[in-house]
Specification:
The chain has about 400 residues and is an alpha+beta fold. The protein has helices at about 1-5, 15-30, 35-45, 55-60, 80-90, 110-115, 130-140, 180-185, 260, 285-295, 305-310, 355-370; strands at about 65-70, 75-80, 100, 120-125, 150, 165-170, 185-195, 205-210, 215-225, 240-245, 245-250, 270-280, 300-305, 325, 330-340, 345-350, 380-385, 395-400, 400-405. The protein is built from twelve helices and 19 strands. Strand 18 (about 395-400) and strand 19 form a beta hairpin. The structure holds S-adenosylmethionine.
């Protein structure tokens, strides 16, 4: 965290200085791959899209929540600048492109995209909430981006009026690649979308290339988290409470023995250390997705509150966002411990009547992952009704409008 707060010189009130600091921070993470995206970040005045926060906050390298539901859940935000930069690099916008964004929020990303398309391009951005759409429109006009069309509608319907698009970017967590996006993306175009690959919220920003009418392929996957899409394409969520502040997020279709699961933390925690080292700078970020798509048990993610962590009741490795496997009343989750300054060791904590058998199965999975390192997912998408016999090898995930196949 220190590195984040130290990144920005909060004593300056010069927006250009703050922008340059933010660009330097993102550069330090190695995210920019093209001068065009870096220059767009250097140009767009973020603070003018975030009038309700102070200058340093507008340029903090973290998301800024701009709207919440009554229960406190975030509904809208200016996304983390590093994630925005990652997704714009994935999108590969060229001058003259026609681009559709879904999830306008503040309008910052639409302005960045307009910098990339230049004056010969077209940018349309859709926002579900009329108050947010109106504010984005006002900010874009005030900052000179009045050529961007802000549409208040459900992005699950796209915007056929300006289709076909060379690029579509979704900036809310999507559960499906909906039919409208298939219909409105040009052949040869690209769709970048934070796709929830599992009901527990496991999300990757994927960059799908439209190869032909009934196939898209993504070989690029970036870890991210987004507020979920609302509206017609909204997804459900299922949670099982394991203790006061420990929740297991599971897939919508899984039907666990909830009574048995709720008892699992009453069993002692059995630790197993695997001797598998993971360097801090190692690209091991897809281990949780690998487990989700390769296990024969059920996959879930633990959300652990501070009290449970302080008590040591559940201590999952932060790096894999609580990745856990469960079967009946037994659960196993990933932990890590320090080996030296640069390296951790992977471990497993298992609770429940079958803990040793289950830990051995998890250990076996981790060894299979280890032999595939660095495991990168390839995701193929096919629209509903075209699956036939030609889905390739891999784990299939079938949603209403699209079948996804994940292979490694
Ligand atoms: C994380 S914010 C987008 C960030 C933004 N693009 C930026 O520049 O930082 C997600 C936005 O998607 C909007 N949203 C959610 N569901 C939507 C839908 N079905 N159609 C259009 N917008 C939607 C939310 O209201 C929210 O403003």
């Amino acid at each position: 965290m220190a590195v984040i707060t130290d990144a920005i010189d909060t004593s300056t009130d010069d927006p250009q200085q703050l922008r340059d600091d933010l660009v330097a921070f993102i550069d330090g993470l190695g995210t920019f791959r093209t001068p065009a995206v870096r220059d767009a970040f250097r140009t767009v005045p973020r603070h003018r899209f975030l009038p309700d926060v102070d200058l340093p906050t507008a340029y903090t390298p973290q998301p800024v929540v701009t709207k919440r539901a009554e229960d406190g859940t975030a509904l809208s935000s200016a996304s983390s600048p590093n994630v925005v930069a990652t997704m714009l690099e994935q999108l590969n916008v060229q001058p003259g492109h026609r681009v559709l964004e879904i999830g306008a929020a503040t309008g910052i990303n639409a302005a960045l995209i307009a910098e990339l398309t230049g004056p010969s391009g077209t940018v349309v951005t859709i926002e579900l909430d009329d108050d947010l759409a109106a504010r984005a429109r006002t900010s874009l006009t005030a900052t000179g981006y009045d050529q961007i069309e802000v549409i208040c509608a459900d992005g699950a319907l796209g915007y056929p009026t300006r289709a076909p698009y060379d690029r579509i970017i979704v900036t809310a967590g999507a559960w499906d690649l909906v039919t409208a996006w298939w219909d409105q993306l040009a052949i040869g175009g690209r769709l970048v979308v934070p796709l929830r690959l599992h009901g527990s919220g496991l999300t990757r920003s994927l960059a799908f290339d439209r190869e032909d009418l009934d196939r898209m392929l993504s070989t690029s996957a970036a870890v991210c988290g987004f507020v979920p899409m609302r509206g017609a394409a909204e997804m459900g969520e299922r949670h099982v409470r394991l203790a006061d502040d420990v929740i297991l997020k599971i897939d919508v279709d899984d039907r666990p023995d909830e009574a048995a699961l709720a008892q699992t933390l009453a069993y002692p925690a059995c630790e197993y250390w695997t001797s598998l080292p993971v360097r801090h700078d190692e690209p091991a970020q897809h281990l949780d997705l690998w487990l989700a798509t390769n296990t024969s048990a059920c996959f879930g993610r633990l959300a652990v509150g501070p009290a449970a962590r302080t008590l040591g009741l559940v201590t999952p490795a932060v790096r894999w966002a609580g990745a856990a496997l469960y079967d009946g009343g037994t659960i196993a989750y990933l932990v890590s411990r320090t080996l030296d300054d640069d390296t951790d060791e992977l471990g497993i904590v298992a609770h429940g009547p079958q803990h040793s058998k289950f830990a051995a199965q998890t250990d076996d999975l981790l060894r299979r992952w280890n032999s595939k390192r660095p495991a990168q997912p390839t995701v193929t998408a096919q629209p509903a009704g075209t699956y036939g016999d030609h889905s390739g090898p891999g784990t299939a995930i079938t949603r209403s409008d699209t079948r996804l196949t994940i292979s490694w």
